[in-house]
Amino acid sequence: MTASDNTQSMLISLEKVEKWYGAFHALKDINLTVRKGEKIVLCGPSGSGKSTLIRCINVLETIESGQITVAGRVLDGSGKAVDAIRREVGMVFQNFNLFPHMTVLQNCALAPMRVRGMGRAEAETLARKYLERVRILDQADKYPAQLSGGQQQRVAIARALCLEPKIMLFDEPTSALDPEMVKEVLDTMISLARDGMTMICVTHEMGFARQVADRVIFMASGEIIEEAEPDVFFTSPKHERTKTFLGEILAHH
Amino acid sequence: MNYQFDFGVVFERAPELLWATLGTFGLAFAGMALALVIGVVGVIGRTSPNKIVRAPVIAFVEIVRNTPFLVQIFYIYFALPLMGIRLNPTTTAIIALGINGGAYAIEIIRGGVESISKGQVEAGYALGLHKADVFRLIVLKPALRAIYPSLTSQFIMLTLTTSVCTSIAAYELTSAAQRIESDTFRSFEVYFIVTGIYLVISTVMMGIFALISRRYFSYPTR
Fold this sequence. Notes:
Chain B: InterPro entries: AA_ABC_transptr_permease_3TM, ArtM/GltK/GlnP/TcyL/YhdX-like, MetI-like, MetI-like_sf. Chain B: It is a multi-pass membrane protein. Chain B: Belongs to the binding-protein-dependent transport system permease family. HisMQ subfamily. The complex is a heterodimer. Chain A is α/β, with parallel strands linked by helices. Chain A has nine helices and ten strands. In chain A, strands 6-7-8-3-9-10 form a six-stranded mixed sheet, sandwiched between helices. A four-stranded antiparallel sheet of chain A has the order 2-1-4-5, with helices on one face. The longest helix of chain A has 16 residues, at 179-194. Chain B has a single domain (15-217), classed as MetI-like (MetI-like fold). In chain B, helix 2 (14-46) crosses helix 5 and helix 4 crosses helix 5 (89-115). The longest helix of chain B is centred in the N-terminal third of the chain and has 33 residues, at 14-46. The interface between A and B is medium-sized, with 27 and 21 residues.
């Protein structure tokens, strides 16, 4: 992808973002821009602030200072801005967070009905379309607990897609999965990436990063330490902390 | 012991007992409905991050749970008229049962709400749902399911507590029993039968609760 600095194609920007949890400085002077269609992989040791960072983008966390702009909308603390941004941003969680008392289809149709104001029939048609997209339509009438972890995560992806978001955030989507189920979820994410979805993925799946990422960002202690294209990132990391991290993580893979 | 049992005079009053049993069911169901509404609405206030909203709910729960039901019902029936609020025995009984059951329900349901993982709530917000929808559509049902056994046993308690409403002569089973007893002097027979009827009432209630559970909370978990 050519790096044109066209503001038109800029979907997310974080400027001088600072986040504290009490006395703990969780995010330090974060500056990041993401263009339309870009795929970003965010990695780093646990507690480095990578999940916090993506959670700030859809306002699951509030920031102390700095500015976040998503799809042309500045997060100004108003409820309207929060609503508008959450409509444009889909999120997939580590623990799936499917609603246990709703069927797969109901999980997916909920937001289209309540947030986009669709009727049930229309919402369910949309839900079926995205369940087909993640190739799990045959499970539409089951409850989450009846599915494997990998299937649940694919449903969670379909549920997020039902809002037809411009951006998808993935918060360690394969960390809670048994090893044999990681691939089906990664394949779904890769196919989404191929379709041109703008994605930010917090993950330690370095194979995935190599295959789809436009940029890999390494965070530690709440700071962005290093940011590079995957080839450069994996073959010639500049910082000592990046090298240590890569040494540890690649040794396990 | 040379007491001669005579159930006949009590059986003659069977229609009266039957109607009074329906009265008890009526008080119990109306009381439960009110208790459930107070419980669900109260728990929203009880779990509010805003202290000004939370404090009165906590006060309400503590006052109701730490005073006798009999005093509460007397308060509504005898004290409120002095302030111009005059209610008939049935209305008084329903309100008293609802308030009493509601205070317990708030604390029980709160336990259920707190058992719901933060991730469920966050998933709702991430999908763009507002707070009220998140509570109503995502939190409430699994929360009620989690505490269903405690809530229903509290409601059985509420059902049996309807007998205290005899103190304001509300239309229910124990008042009828007292009436029949004072007419016939057959204390043993009357209360023997009434005890049996209460057992039947409780059993029927449990059956209804089980049906509701099967209908609404039967989704699989794990």
